[in-house]
Amino acid sequence: MLEGEKNKFCYAGIGFNNDTPFMLMSNRPINFERLYQTSSWKDGDVFGCGVVFPPKKESKILPYVFFTKNGRRTGNKFSLKGDSDNLRPYFHLLLCSIEINFGNDPDNKPFRYNVLKHNI
């Protein structure tokens, strides 16, 4: 969940590593050099970031990153290149706060996005 300071320019970025695709959310228009995807937000919106490693039999499909907003996929998926088995969560914030859910308590804090219904 994302919340910003009132009447101040705020943004948050989520992704895996700082050199792979990420999503940047802002409460005002923003120009960012390495932008892959943007989204507006309001306090309480829930954003997610996932990575898919296709089955080995699907050798033509590269691993990819996808993003969600309030439980729905948003934007494009981004293929991962190079060393995609060394991914770390990445958060970039300015004047806002986030609550992070890594999925370690699915009974009490389930993901908003249903990963079981995700299609490769």
From TrEMBL:
The record's annotation in InterPro entries points to: B30.2/SPRY_sf
Taxonomic lineage per UniProt? Eukaryota, Metazoa, Ecdysozoa, Nematoda, Chromadorea
The source's superkingdom equals Eukaryota
Q: Which organism is it from?
A: Meloidogyne incognita (Southern root-knot nematode worm)
Protein name in the entry: SPRY domain-containing protein
